[in-house]
Amino acid sequence: MNRHYEITPRTIIIGIALLAAIWILIQIRLVVISVFIALILGLALDPMVTRLKRLHLPRPVGVFLVFFLFLAAVLGLTAYGFTPLVNETGKFIVNLPQFLRPVLDSLGPIPFASELQQQLASQATLLSANILTIAGSIVSNIIFLLTVLFLTFYFLLDWENLKNRLVKMLDHRSRTRFQGIIESMEKNLGGWLRGQLLLMVVVGVLVYLGLFALGVEYALPLAVIAGLFEVIPTIGPVLSAVPALLVGFATSFGLGIWVLVLYVVVQQLENSLIVPNVMGRAVGFSPLTTLLIVFAGAQLFGIGGAVLSIPVAILLNILAHDLLSWNHSRR
Q1: pLDDT of residue 210
Q2: CB 42 within 8 Å of CB 155
């Protein structure tokens, strides 16, 4: 039996509207990204607000306490580590050629070395000429960060009202689906961020203690790099080890080996103890799937895509499970 498909005016209008919506989302992608990040932060902090509400504390008061405690912790840690971090990072950058020289000398003469040196010099000149552009980029990033914090605060403040308004717009069956999606988002996305923050802190502290015990220079910025790169799953810890290994092997071969051992031990502890217990329940992806998702995000949107690839995949996974359950229930 032959099937005939008819394209109606309604189908054309829906298709045009969908394309227009996609085009608009692309044009306001920074707004969409900031809202998505604020939503993840809000979902991560909301359980603490809910616990305060169970203690008969009004939600606005709980939001103020949780949000400003969060800000105080972030700003306090930043202020405490900012001065030594800047000083040690500056020394590390200044002394980087000295660290690289023994490594390069051991490799022998490098072809096109003079051309490479000229290219680096020209890039340094170009960097100096574009200092205003760099300053403008820093200011725009600060504005983006402040916008995300502002949206996070209002998400926390109005989250329950927002959910209630959306629920009232739906019929009974759709309300059940919507509430299930929201609960999954609160559990998985919020759990992912809380686990990610805990993972970054634990790895950063372990690396700092190990580097400090080994007497490695620039232990603080190297530990901060190790903690921050944990936000990039799978490949982040490998990338964070590179500058520490450069410093270690430039100091002595034996110290470089011990630094390598330290990072391998931390990586094994992370993979065998921390990640399965902290991140496994929230993410639920296999290591191979996680790696493919990160590579796809990095290929499409760069570093930001690699960082946000896992939470986006979690959200799409939640929506896909809901759609499959809905289709199954209709049969």
Answers
A1: 92
A2: yes
Cβ pair 196, 233 in contact under 8 A:
no
CA distance 323 to 331: 13
Host H or E run for residue 290: helix 287-330
Quick: pLDDT tens for 118-151: 555 565 555 555 666 666 677 777 788 888 888 8
How is the chain split into domains, by residue range?
29-106+133-330
Spatial neighbors of 202 by CB under 8 A, at least 6 apart, are 274
Q: How many beta carbons lie within 10 A of that of residue 297, not counting itself? A: 22
Query: Are 210 and 202 within 8 A, CB to CB?
Result: no
Residue recorded with tokens 């030594």: 84
Collect the ranges in the chain with pLDDT lower than 70. Answer: 1-7, 76-136, 233-234, 273-284, 286-287, 329-331
Cβ pair 313, 285 in contact under 8 A: yes
Tokens of residue 31, six digits:
């707004």
Rounded distance between C-alpha atoms, residue 185 and residue 285, angstroms: 16
DSSP letters spanning 128-148? HHTHHHHHHHHHHHHHHHHHH
DSSP assignment of 49-80 equals HHHHHHTT--HHHHHHHHHHHHHHHHHHHHHH
pLDDT tens sequence across 245-286: 877 887 788 888 999 999 999 888 877 766 666 555 556 676
Name the 3-class secondary structure at 201: helix
**In this structure, how many other beta carbons lie within 10 angstroms of the beta carbon of residue 233?**
23
234 within 8 A of 270, measured Cβ to Cβ: no
